[in-house]
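Can't paste images in this forum, so I'm doing it all in text. The chain is below; anyone willing to post the predicted structure tokens underneath?
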Amino acid sequence: MIGKFRLRKKKAAPTRTPEKPMGVPPEILRQVKLIELRTRGLVNSVFTGEYRSVFKGQGMEFSEVREYQPGDEVRSIDWNVTARMSRPFVKRYIEERELTVMLVVDLSGSERFGTVKRFKSELASELAAVLAMSAIRNNDRVGVLLFTDRVEHVVPPRKGRRHVLRIIRDLLAFEPVGRGTDMVTAIDYVARMLNEHAIVFIVSDFLEADIDHPLKLLAQHHDVVAVTVEDPSERLLPDIGIARLIDPETGETFEVDTSHPEVRDSYSRRVSAEREARKHLLRRLAIDEVAVRTEGGVVEPLLRFFRARETRARRR
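Text version of the structure:
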């Protein structure tokens, strides 16, 4: 599989990280503060309305009855009160926000890779931070699960600024034990963990087979969004002659002639086939995809996702 030349390993049992502070270096704390400031500005100026319009509450709660005003919908008229008062009154409802957002983030070896501006893991952390800040800004609960070839670290969904800062800190500072990838175990863990409907963002390069059934089961009970993280060199093999490569997940070393026409053609065909297979799978399961790349940012892909989803909802 392109980007993940690895040996199959025995699955490790999921573990839950204790709820206690980690010893975090000062430079990580400074990064957390910078990300908070940057993402808070983005959330307040760009994402608040988009996020709220796409991810609505689970129902409507009765608020009050007030006198009819021009522009109110006729179907909201309370006919009993209208009959008693001899003039029209309408019922008002407020949206029950109380949403749960779960961020499932891949920290495997292939995520600690990048050839342009940053590693894929850094891009994933920034995007997760924007989503976490958007959730908290709308008074939603947010949690995170970090995984490799095992479940590495779990922060249960909660509200509040301090909680989201902890999530950002963990995204930046956590050092995983594993290097491989086992998305199936991570998906199963989240499915057992969440007792009620949630929005689940899976942030990964999705270079793993046999995830169809677990994803299908998760999407039947939750709103699942796939955030695919890519680097340019994964889409187009760099032409640099004979290169010695190290698999980031297994540590295996091998040589490839990146200039050989057959090698380049085979790589291109396999990458295209994997991308098409992933897109077909997500379409079949009705799972939205947000594609982000290390040479770009997170703002435009997220805005395209929010606006496309809102347009689709209006058409329905």
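The chain has two domains: 26-53+98-315, 58-96. Residues 26-53+98-315 form a domain with the Rossmann fold fold (CATH 3.40.50.410).
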